Amino acid sequence: MSNAKMKMLEKHELELVDVNTETNTAVIGGSVLSVNEIQIDTPITGTVFGTLLNYKGEIERLGDAINDKPYNSPPIAPILYIKPVNTFNRHGAAIPMPIGITKLKMGAALGLVIGKKAVAVDEATALTYIAGYTIVNDVSVPHDSVYRPAVQHVARDGFCPIGPWIIDRHEVDNPDDLTIRVFINDKLQQENSTSNLIRPVSRLLADVTEFMTLSEGDMLLVGVPEEAPLAEVGDRIRIEIEGIGSLENVIVDETATNRGRSL
What we know:
Elements: E1 2-8, E2 15-20, E3 25-28, E4 31-34, E5 40-41, E6 48-52, H1 56-62, E7 79-83, E8 88-90, E9 94-97, E10 104-105, E11 108-114, E12 130-137, H2 151-154, E13 160-168, E14 179-184, E15 187-193, H3 201-208, E16 219-221, E17 230-231, E18 236-241, E19 245-253
Parallel strand pairs: 6-16, 8-13, 9-19
Antiparallel strand pairs: 1-2, 1-5, 1-13, 2-3, 3-4, 6-7, 10-17, 11-12, 11-16, 12-13, 14-15, 14-18, 18-19
Keywords: Isomerase, Metal-binding
Pfam families: FAA_hydrolase
GO molecular function, one term: 5-oxopent-3-ene-1,2,5-tricarboxylate decarboxylase activity
């Protein structure tokens, strides 16, 4: 069992729980329950920052185009964007498919949950600023813009499922060597590892806090691997991150449901 924090629906505070990340179960009231049996809320209340082009395969996929306009050269600093609060979604809830869109990109990402104010963090001590880790589906409408992702592509309602819990950082031996898998309708569609990050976790945190402050409760996504799989209405998505657990959601037509509806 691993130490984690979980937020129940209609509760204001995170609760300490023992979880099994392999079976995706938690000990609640002395009983072992599947997360699908628990009404779980989004465990994040701060700002969520996404990171672009932080997987080696993403740069390789761009090839020579990264030296052309508008890029001109590979990035020399982290490229960030924000997933605003309207995008926040929870384990077991529906992801709305916008009207006029037929497919969405499923962006599997490791989330670094900040545990204390982080300013100009030293890479050697960066992990001490992390409270824990969670799973994020950084959903987006497929688009070509890399350096300047349009708000309408990444910031739609429900486009950031998070959870099901926050695993204490001490439970993860090496965040830079975690296998990430994406399943659509129980079929494996993507597999990658945080060992392929251009900026490993400590380096990313140090580079970001060199020019901006991260506060307790904020979350920094390490990035989304290249070739994020596409999903459509009716598809059931499961993102697994080694040692963290599984995050599950289903895509529905936005006209047929409200964000937050359970599976």
